[in-house]
Amino acid sequence: MGFDEMDVDTIWQDGSFVDWDDATVHVLTHGLHYGSGVFEGVRCYDTENGPALFRWEEHLDRFFESTKPYDMELPYSREELTQATLELVRREELESCYIRPVAFYGYGSLGVSPKDNPVNVAIAAWPWGTYLGEAALEEGVEVMISSWRKHASSQIPTNAKTTGLYVNSMLAGEEARRNGYTEAIVLNKEGNVAEGPGENIFLVRDGEIYTPGLAQSILDGITRNTVIELARERGYTVHDQATISRGELNTADELFFSGTAAEVTPIRKVDNVEIGNGSRGPVTEELQQAFFDLVERRNDDHDEWFTYV
Ligand code: PMP
């Protein structure tokens, strides 16, 4: 659904709430030219106890950490950003939504050095359903291995959620969709499995769970961390620093993506080769169920992960 069809009126921009249509920037904004911004994607779930931000504190941690390599000082505190977000969700009377905080070097000069530019910050929120399609959660998605490799963490910090990084995600995702797939899997420079364009990846084999570690040039996903915890609590052995070769994707019993947008999405085929029996596997289903039970607060587990609106 495009923004024009949505009924959200306000965006928080640089300290105040402005009309959606007025939340604009100058065309000579540094971040627009050089991708010098950092951002977050957070979900607010319509839980049994009312709307709640899921793992907001961890998203804020990552937001602040993402600024570090870029010497970017956010002009707002954690508390200010939290209050702004809660107020935005309340004002718009959103029940479940996606929240997008973004900070970027703004308008001032266009040398590559950002030092003369202000740091601008905005937070928007809007309703956003299943990222990879309604059917994806149950049936799984068909993905292709992208011919684009993920940038190595020696080239650009892949653990920072930087706006400029996402041209790589766009290339990989669009290549996949152009070829009739829903999403891509991106290999790292060494040719091992890194992640999806906007998702982490998990592999199940012989009842154990594997996911690439940070050394594989991945983003340290908060959903990844959630899935690891849920799996361990259910007695699974989780190898969270795995090196997964391309061929191991084909011989996996199950594969699935995790991410704020993608949540827990099974992968049923890779490059047209069926994974397992070609449908959502039992471990994926169990963890997916555990995930949705958690985020919709159908149980009391991990209440510390929720910030109620
Ligand atoms: N990898 C990449 C490249 C991403 O953009 C995302 C989405 N933020 C993820 C993994 C998943 O991270 P999270 O679970 O924190 O949303």
Derived from helix and strand composition plus strand pairing, the structural class reads alpha+beta
Per CATH, the class of the largest domain reads Alpha Beta
Helix proportion of residues, in percent? Answer: 25-40%
Main β-sheet: number of strands, strand sense, barrel status?
Answer: 9 strands, mixed
In CATH, what is the homologous superfamily of the largest domain?
A: D-amino Acid Aminotransferase, subunit A, domain 2
The CATH architecture of the largest domain is Alpha-Beta Barrel
Number of helices, counting only DSSP H or I runs of 4 residues or more = 8
Overall number of domains: 2
Distance between the termini: 24 Å
Chemical compounds bound to the protein: 4'-deoxy-4'-aminopyridoxal-5'-phosphate
Give the CA-based shape: globular
Q: Can you tell me the CATH topology of the largest domain? A: D-amino Acid Aminotransferase, Chain A, domain 2
Elements, N to C (H/E): EEHEEEHHEEHEHEEEEHEHEEEHE
Average pLDDT reading: 97
Report low-confidence residues grouped into runs of 5 or more: none
Content of β-strand: 25-35%
Task: Tell me the number of strands.
Answer: 17
Question: Could you tell me the radius of gyration in angstroms?
Answer: 19 Å
